[in-house]
Amino acid sequence: VAALVIEGRQIEIDFAITCTGFSPNNSLAFQAKLDIGKYGGIKVNNRLQTSQKDIYACGDCIEIKNFVTRIDDYFPLATLAHREGHIAGENAALGNAYLQPAIKNISVKIFDHYFAQVGLSEQELQNKNIPHSTVEETVPNLVKVLKESNLVYGKILFDRSSKKILGASFLGGKEVSGYADIISTYIKNNIPATQLADTEYNYTPPLSPMINLLSVLGRKAAHSFSHGKENNDVTYINNNMDFKL
User: Fold this and answer.
1) With 50 as the cut, is the pLDDT of residue 244 above it?
2) In terms of pLDDT, which residue wins out, 230 or 157?
3) Contacts of 20 (CB under 8 A, 6+ apart)
4) pTM higher than 0.90, yes or no?
5) What is the 3-state secondary structure (H, E, C) of 12-31?
6) Do 120 and 220 reside in the same domain of the chain?
7) Among 26, 93, 139, 170, which has the minimal tally of Cβ within 10 Å of its Cβ?
8) Total number of domains in the chain
9) Is there a single domain that holds both residue 82 and residue 160?
C-alpha cells in the first residue's frame, strides 16, 4: 500500500492497519420484538429484564448503564458478561439481583506494548463536552538501574470541580492492567485523583518501582489545584522520556 484516499485527499503511507470492533448479535431479539438501544444492543433494566418481562438478556448483546455518564452504553467485555450471566440467571429463576452501572476497563497488546483504557477517554470527554483536567507522565516501570526496566506512560482525566476521576489511559508493559484496575476502583468509589498520591503502593525492586506512576499522577493532580486556584488547562509531560500517547 502506497497511499490512501480520504475525503478526496491522497495521503502517502508506509503501511495500513485494519481495525475491527464488536457489534451486538440482535437478530433473535428483533424476532422476539424486544426493544433495541442506540448501539444495537438489547435494552434491559438493572435486573437485566428486557422489554418483555419474562425474557432476560446478558453479555455482549445488551446495553447497560455507564457509571461515569449514567446513560446506556455498550460494553462487550468478558468480565461483565460473566457477572451479568449470574444476575440474569438468578432473576430468571425468580431471584432479585441487580446490576450496578459499569466502568469500561479494557486492555490490548499493541506490538511489544500493552495499552489499557479505563472509564472515558479524552476523545469521549471532548465529544460529550465534559469539562476536565488532564495530567500525564512517563516513568520507569521498575527501578531504572535494572536491565528489565522499561518506560510506562499514564494519563489521568478528572473532573475540574470535584477532582473525581473520569478516565485514564496507560501504555507500557503488563503492569498497565493493574493500574487500570486501581483507577476503576477509584472511579467506582468516587475517590478524587489527588488521593492517588496518598495511597500505599507495593514496592520491591524486581517487581515494582519505588515511586509508583499513579503516585506521580496524583501529585500532579494535586499541584494543578495548588494555592486555592484551579488550573483548568494543566497538562504535564516529561520531555526527557521518549514515548507518549
Assistant:
1) no
2) 157
3) none
4) no
5) ECCCCCCCCCCCCCCHHHHH
6) yes
7) 93
8) 2
9) no
